Amino acid sequence: MLPGLAARTIDLTIKPMLRATLVLLIGACALSAQPPLERILFLLGNWASDTDTELGHATALSTFAQELDRRILTRRGSTKYTSGKNAGQQHDDLLIVYPEGPDGGMKAIYFDAEGHVIHYTVTIPEPNTAVFDSDPAQPGPRYRLTHKVTGRQMETKFEVAAPGQANYQTYVSGVSSRK
Questions:
Q1: Fewer CB within 10 Å, N- or C-terminus of the chain?
Q2: What stretches of the chain adopt beta strand conformation (E)?
């Protein structure tokens, strides 16, 4: 082997590998540095539905928006029931989603006009799907709210598990359209 050939061979093979590793590391850091709320922005916009639900015929409007310099995501919703067991009633609510901790997690808190307050942990189990699970350490029933967006449609399901029960039961579900 000629003098310096081994050094040149190492230089030609290792440097590209180091560059590729560096590019991968930078890419991974960029993904992990993505603000948590970026993963849930598929919910943004105005959504409307006019449908029959388990509680009666309902007309619902909800708006997902970024607020406070895009540091939180809010959903303001209003549902009016025109028939069924909830006929004549209106349900108004507010959901606030916010980043939690350095690991990129998200939490949410829900309020409604009936006085309910629910604390949620938010996960994105698959693209365009957000799952809000209530804190199992809290007393009382557990709640799960799921929003799944496909094109201009959003499927929403709200489920309840009785205290001590593992299985959730659907309380109300429906499909809304992006306006």
A1: N
A2: 45-53, 56-67, 72-81, 90-100, 105-112, 117-126, 129-134, 142-150, 153-161, 169-178
